Amino acid sequence: MSETSDSFARCVEQSERAAWRLDDVMPAGTRLDFTSPFLPESLAKTASLEMLDARERKILNQITANAYLNAFSFVEEYIIATMMDHARAELFGDKDALRALTRVAEEEVKHQQLFERYRIAFEDGFGTTCRVLDNAAEVAGAILSKSPVAVMLVTFQLELTTQHHYVESARDDDTLDPFFVSLLKHHWIEESQHARVDALELEKQAAFAPNRALESGVDEYFEIVAELGATFARQAAMDVDSLATAIGRVLTDDERTRIEASRRLAYEDMFVRCGLTHPTFLALLGRLDESAPERAESLAKTLGGDPSCN
Ligand SMILES: [Fe+2]
Ligand SMILES: [Fe+2]
Fold first, then answer.
1. pLDDT tens digits, 7-20
2. How far apart are CA 70 and CA 274, in angstroms?
3. Which of 13, 200, 261, 302 gets the highest tally of CB atoms within 10 A of its CB?
4. How many A from CA of 244 to the centre of ligand 2?
């Protein structure tokens, strides 16, 4: 048995121990409690918006949290497809790798079902409509047109970020809604296993793909990151409309501009910068292309955000 196969075997074993059932985390018909904020301030970034009162900032926090879960469901669309492709490549090969990859795909479908239950509960309880990104298939197609190295790198980055979002930001914050924290926890538990599988798939690429292919894969990864930034900018604009409707008052142009900019910063920080500066991510990126970590760190500096992500 190869060293890689041993590691995939450990991933399967630990994934079986960590896995949870959808009905245990969010039984059908669960109602949400809107008393407390859902996301920690380090992620939601509403405190600097002094034109909003405390109730309005809490509403914006909840709008951002709803968009956050939708964004994961959104990227899971392409992650399921790419994991199935990687699994197919192992169909008559390494059985442990095949099991690890199909488990990731199955769990991502489960996460999408969890987030769909949550979306329905949010819509039922929030009181007004909040628009969220709805072109997942289109974005999945654009991401999947890039090389496997590029697609797996962005997947690795996104899955690593769930650790920061739960362990370092939400877990010890007792001001947050406990149900939302539980969702972050259960998502992170399985995502931390997925990130290990991504790393093994990237190690395979590092071992077997020619250097030129690795470098062009890394270039395409940076293209995907730029496209993700543009996608989240669309979500930021939707959030301003959702907020104005929810708080029932007209926002001035200046207020709208500032709130939209704060949402763009929050999403860039959560979904791009956090992963881009993660030491585990940078170490693997450097194995594929030794000049890439410096490029990632320069890009991260242009995004600003929360230095505690490092
Ligand atoms: Fe997921
Ligand atoms: Fe995942």
1. 999 999 999 999 99
2. 18
3. 200
4. 33
Where does the pLDDT of residue 309 fall: very low under 50, low under 70, confident under 90, or very high at 90 and above? low
Ligand 2 centroid – CA 189 distance (Å) = 10
| Distance in Å, CA 116 to ligand 1 centroid | 12
Share of the chain above pLDDT 90, in %: 82
Predicted confidence (pLDDT) per residue in 43-78, tens digit: 999 999 999 999 999 999 999 999 999 999 989 999
In whole angstroms, what is the distance from residue 203 CA to residue 94 CA?
A: 15
Residue the block writes with tokens 């697609």 = 151
Q: Closest-lying ligand to the alpha carbon of 108? A: 1
Cβ–Cβ under 8 Å, residues 202 and 153: yes
Answer left, alpha or beta for residue 155, where phi above 0 means left and psi between -120 and 50 means alpha: alpha
Buried b (16+ CB within 10 A) or exposed e, 202-216: bbbbeeebeeeebbb
Cα 118 to ligand 1 centre (Å): 14
Instruction: Provide the token pair at 129.
Output: 């409509």
> How is the chain split into domains, by residue range?
52-309
Phi/psi of residue 149, nearest 5 degrees: -65, -45
